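Annotated sample (chain length 532).
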Amino acid sequence: MPSVFVSYRRTDTPTDAGRLHDALAAKFGDSNVFMDVDSMDPGVDIAEVIESEVARCDVLLAVIGPDWLRAEPGGDSRLHDPKDWVRVEISSALKRKIRVVPVLVQGASLPSAAELPEELRPLVQRHAVKLTNEGWTPQVQSLLARLEKPMVRPQPGPKPKGTPKRQPGPNAWSRLRRLPPLAVLTAVGVLLLLLLAAGIRAFLRDHDGTTGTVLTPTPTEATPDPTPEAKPQQLPVIRLSGEPDGVAVEGNYVWVAQGNARSVARVDAKTLQPTAPTKAGIGSVDSVTGADGSVWVTAETSGKVTQIDETSGTADDPVPISNAVHKEFRGLAVGATSLWIAGCSEHAVFQLPLKPESTPVPIGVGGQPRNVAIAADQRVYVAVRRQYPGCEDGALKPGHDHIAVIDPAEKPLRARTLVGEEIADPTDVVVTGKWLWVAGNENEVLRLDRKTGRIDRHVPVADVISLAAGEDAIWALSRKTPERSATLTRIDPDTVTVDTLPIAGKAQEIAAGKGRVWVSQRDPAGVRPIQP
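Output written by the structure step:
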């Protein structure tokens, strides 16, 4: 198993280097991958650590982006500074004859020899690997497969049958001894030159003999075998600055509520690049949802919500929802005319009409609501439990486990219990057509007929904390508290067959959109794309 050193410039490619690091660690193990941010202990001598780690690695990946050279105010590239850490890392690997692979990202090109200090000029003779956002996963998988294979020198083939073995004559050594010393030295010199030329030719064959050529994975290498049993594939985590909670997909972005940072992160769903987070101005944010170009976010304990413009990323003034002593909002959904907010501590769902100067209307649901889903006919479905862990409700009387239904066309507004079979401990709910999907009964995802409330199918999935409805699947995220690993389950909505995928990290919530499933997670903090 190879040991890999990831060299990159923090002002150039931190996100790409982080994604590559995660893929390497997943393949070869954390202990076999070194990247300064993740691998150095506080207070260590950076130069000593770099020298030591480069010395023990089998391969160094030099991640090169558009600003890798980046001239200083005086006009020289940072690489011309002998103390530049990127220069130190790469030159150390080159001097030690360690395999160095330039990794070109964000459309960058391999620099010319004239742009590099003399000790780095051998870099342009190394084959480069090009990684693009569009082909990231197959290209990285191809790179990992190549790194896993040792560099093998070609061996001479067998001699044809019948070729006689050459044997020295009985007095060959004596004849050699009778030659003049100058002739002997000349013969030895010619032999050494021939051996050196053969070695160079073998090296060039190993490296394809082309200077500075960009090596793009072939379709055979990049494309996984298309099998009906193919499972979802998790991509590297997109690192974020805060601790993620809720996640939603709206417009061209993935939105992640960052509770401790009191902000909402925005990630481009196509390029997978995060943008500057939006300060929500409502305290520790928890849940997020979106529709029609707007994103809504709630704070866990402030009793307020705010709206964020999808294009500009700016937040409106906060809207107070409740002034109760105990106020905890744990879920929300947006319909055609209203925003619906689950007020866990008040045993109510709040309706906020989507028009200026609107006043929120509380609707009692007979227990602690956690999550809300809206059907195409605008009926609202609420997962209600007798009590959720961590939700304070003061002196309110205990509720009961059930699914509540609110019909916005009914006046006055009220919540009814969905008629049908009892469901214990409902955790989340989503709607697809005629079906209602509920995580409940502790170890099941249930498919219910929305009209009759009867359970149509029992899908055994334990410890579900979040559900999402994709284009052709229902997704369930499972995690046992306080474990730092999770499982993602894909449920076929027609056949109700399942596939599972382990998720590394402390997963929080899932959302589906833009052809992927998105998992907000901590340790490491970020959002992880899942390719169905």
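Annotation: The first strand starts at residue 4 and ends at 7.
Annotation: The two ends are 29 Å apart (CA to CA).
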